Amino acid sequence: MLLVDDDPLVRTGLSMILSSTGDIEVVAEAGDGDEAVPKVTMHAPDVVLMDIRMRRMNGLTATAAVTALPNPPKVLVLTTYDLDEYVFDALGAGASGFLLKEGSPQEIIDAVRVVAAGEAMLSPRTTRKLIGHFVATRTSPRRHRARAGLGTLTERERQIVTAVAQGWTNAEIGSELHLSEATVKTHITRIFAKLDATNRVQLTIFAYEAGLVAP
Predict the structure, then answer these.
(1) What distance in Å separates the CA atoms of residue 176 and residue 191, rounded to the nearest whole number?
(2) CB within 10 Å: which end of the chain, N or C, has fewer?
(3) Mean of the pLDDT values across residues 53-69?
């Protein structure tokens, strides 16, 4: 993984925590968003741990740039506040989840593993709280676009998006809808293509903005 933070002490602490696991390797570090893209291209990490508030290019801009790369890594954004508009925008730009800086070492390790696995979004309850808060206070253009996207989905696809937004895994969705897990994955791949989404967090944001799930 790649660590991106403008505080060298934070990077050192995170590197020590993550490298102690045996199954997580820190391949590089970057001091700001400007360094993130070339280091992702050079080292091809599976996960980028991205500080959201940095002195030069911030984590929002850097996340959008990283997730636009071919075969992008998962991005886990770091924040001091659980209700941070920059984090909401980073999730919309393609981040797979977010993590509070004051989290325990084990929470940080678990978060990286969850994001690397790609099965479910990080901390569904906390992420939904953040998404619901900002969707409820945002103006209508995004909602209009989401509702237009809703018209491209079949009824089954709407059911799956709703389940994803509620934090269900593929196995749980399959059990509820009487589908195999492989079929659920196929549906989600098609939904990603229809909505130009890259991960489950973006589907969750879409579900709130389209009115499938209430804040």
Answers:
(1) 18
(2) C
(3) 86
